[in-house]
Structures are given as structure tokens and as C-alpha cells.
Amino acid sequence: MVPGPGPGPAAGPPPPAPHTHPAGGGGARSLTAGRPAALRPPPRPGRHSAPAMAGLGQGCAGKAPLLVKIVMAGESCVGKTSIVRRYTEPGSPPAGAPTSSYLATIGIDFKVKPVTFNGTRVKLQIWDTAGQERFHTLSTSYFRGAQGFVLVYDITNLDSFRSITSWMKDIHEKAGDEVDVILLGNKCDKESERVVPKQKGEKLAWEHGIPFFETSAKDNVNIEDAFSVLTKEILEKKSCVLYDLDVVALNESKKRTCCAF
Ligand SMILES: Nc1nc2c(ncn2[C@@H]2O[C@H](COP(=O)(O)OP(=O)(O)OP(=O)(O)O)[C@@H](O)[C@H]2O)c(=O)[nH]1
């Protein structure tokens, strides 16, 4: 659906042996540095190297939560909404259940997920974009200002995998080269319908220098871990991202009142 070729493969060693990620924790809200790492490829050329985790949140203690904008991207029907629901509303009915009917996202939606990372409060603002071609301009207009992207394809849909390179191009055009992206091959519960081998997903992620997971929104496989790894990557790169603007505004107005008298 998306025009144009993406950036060429980055030079680097061949992909490592397939790595199985453990299932997501299902509802745990604390992200820890000891999380199982996703397949960790070398950084893309031109990216900043990540500072040590020990420095994360220094100078942020006691302040408003950090606000992190994450955008879901990928073709229609790959499971973006289901992944967001699974992560932000653990009690919601699972995707892909026999009774669940597909409702295309119209335009844009977002959910907030508060998490604690190494003692630092973080508000993940997760924007769920519509994958349908007719919403493409609208969806990609929300890419600007995002710190992280969850780029999703469906392991039972070859076209959705082929389009990933174009989505990567859109992301870097709209959000810059410094954003963190994670690649998910969703619907891994449908093994009998698989058309995209896991190694292909791993190789593509390696070429783009981004972490990779196969996930199932239906069976809650690797959803929590995928968001944990992405959040960790974002926060490692910046000692402080942004504070939640509402809280900052409140504090600012309090300060002004205080100073006026
Ligand atoms: N078996 C299975 N089905 C899934 C999974 N994730 C999503 N689905 C189903 O796939 C269909 C599409 O899921 P959505 O989450 O709406 O897909 P989307 O990417 O948000 O689609 P758009 O809103 O059009 O962009 C629905 O019928 C879901 O129930 C999964 O992990 N496994």
C-alpha cells in the first residue's frame, strides 16, 4: 500500500540464530532493566549510542511522570488495535476469539499506560493509527513528535510483511532518524497459516537495526516484553524525555500564584 522503497540494508553481521522470547507477563506494570532482551541488533548508522541504564531518570526523581509518545504502524488488519488493547486493557476479550469481529480503526485513537521504570514514573501515550490506505495521510501525520514506533505485520499475510520497508521509510521521513522502532510479527498463534518465516522477520529487523518479536495479541505472547524493550530503548537514549504537560502546567501556575504575593 505504501509507495517507495525503504532505506537499504545496513551493513552488519548476519542475523544471529533464531531467539525465542518468553511470553509476556500479562498485567505486570513495572518495567525492569533485567527484562529479557529482544534480539538486539547493532544500532543503525548515525544513531546516538545509549547511555548506561544507571543514569536513567537522574535528576527526574520526584517530578512529574515522563511522557512518552509511541505510535502503532503497519497495514490494516495486522492486529495493531488488538495489541494496544491487550497491553493497556489486560481484561479485555482476546483478539482473534471466535466471536470477535474485525472493526477497522477509523482515523486515530490513543490509550495511556502508566508504568514505572527503574523507579521513574512514565506515562506511555500509545497512538493507534488506522492501517487502511485511505487514512494513510492522516495516520502518518501523527508520526511527528513520537519517540517510539511499534511496527506490526501479520505472519499470515505476506503483503503486510513486504510493506514494512515502506513504513520504515515513512517513519524516518516524518519522525526523524533518532526514533526507536520495534518490529512485531503478530498472530504467531496461527502457525498453520504462517507465510512469513520467523527468520525473515529477524533478518529484516537486523537490517534496520531494530529489536524484533513475534507476538500474539490473542494468546498474549510477548506483548508486555515488546513494550518493555521499546520503552527501555527510548528512556536509555534520553536522560529525561518530557514531563507530563498537564502536571507541569499545574505546578507552573501554582508557582506563579506563589510568586505573585
Ligand atoms: N488469531 C489472531 N487474531 C488476531 C490477533 N491480533 C488481531 N487479530 C484479529 O485480526 C483482526 C484485525 O485486528 P485489529 O487489531 O483490528 O487490526 P488493526 O491492525 O488495528 O487494523 P486497522 O484498524 O484496519 O488498521 C481482528 O479480527 C482481530 O481479532 C492475533 O494475535 N491472533
From TrEMBL:
Coiled coil: none
Location of the protein in the cell: Membrane
CDD domains tied to this protein: Rab
Annotated catalysed reactions: GTP + H2O = GDP + phosphate + H(+)
PROSITE patterns: RAB, RAS
Entry's EC annotation: 3.6.5.2
Composition skew (Pro residues), residue ranges: 1-19
First-level EC class: hydrolase
One Pfam family cited in the UniProt record for this chain: Ras
GO molecular function per UniProt: G protein activity; GTP binding
Chief place where the protein resides: membrane
Span list, region Disordered: 1-54
Alphabetically ordered keywords of this record: GTP-binding, Lipoprotein, Nucleotide-binding, Prenylation
GO terms under cellular component: membrane
Keyword GTP-binding (UniProt): yes
SUPFAM superfamilies, per database record: P-loop containing nucleoside triphosphate hydrolases
Transmembrane segments: none
Membrane topology of this protein: Lipid-anchor
PANTHER family: LD44762P
NCBIfam families reported in the protein's UniProt record: small_GTP
Sequence similarity: Belongs to the small GTPase superfamily. Rab family.
Protein name as annotated: small monomeric GTPase
Lineage summary: Eukaryota, Metazoa, Chordata, Craniata, Vertebrata
